[in-house]
Amino acid sequence: MSENTDPLPDWAPLVHGLRTRFRTRDFAAGLELVTAFAAEAEAANHHPDLTLRYGTVDVLLYSHDAGGVTDRDRRLAARFSEIAREREVSANPGESSVVELGLDTADAARIAPFWSAVLGAEIQEDDGDLEIRAHGADAILWFQHTEPHETPRQRFHLDVWVDPREARGRIEAAVAAGGRLVSAEHAPSFWVLADPDGNHACICTATGRS
């Protein structure tokens, strides 16, 4: 049996960040965990996104100034895992996912202001592409370039970002539910799937991306 050499097994590398979900016994335990995380983050002068719900604490680590994951994030992730283990709280990175909505267009600059106004969010540039973001690392809507064409039946598609360890299971479940695999050309970065009506969605991972 090969030894697991993943330095951060509690964390899923998803778009623009490291994410995980900690399963707590109840709300009070979750609040105590968040308080401990906050103290550690304050000491490190590096502040994650923390989402407290009954029974769960979701964490996103992301360096806004660098536009991605840095050693600061990795160090804090490792420390958060230690804090959780001390409290016998389990991490469930496979439950973390990010859903982005993509819109095909030949002219993102022309339509982005409309979507910015409708969604009440900012237009931001990411590696030359335009996105609509409310805050932090997650895009509400991003624009995929296409050549000018007649209006197709589908212009939106879902990008579902998952832990790379979960991608194959998601794909197999989708196919078992009546879908089909359209393309694995860019795997393991992403796979293109289609539902029974032909509507596309992509299962995406951070693997193989610069």
From TrEMBL:
Residue ranges of domain Glyoxalase-like in the record: 102-204
Protein name per the record: Putative pterin-4-alpha-carbinolamine dehydratase
Keywords recorded for this protein, A-Z: Lyase
PANTHER family named among the record's database cross-references: CONSERVED PROTEIN (PTHR35908:SF1), HYPOTHETICAL FUSION PROTEIN (PTHR35908)
Annotated InterPro entries: Glyas_Bleomycin-R_OHBP_Dase, Glyoxalase_6, PCD_sf, Pterin_deHydtase
CDD domains: PCD_DCoH (cd00488)
Xref: Pfam families: Glyoxalase_6 (PF18029), Pterin_4a (PF01329)
Species, as recorded: Tsukamurella pulmonis
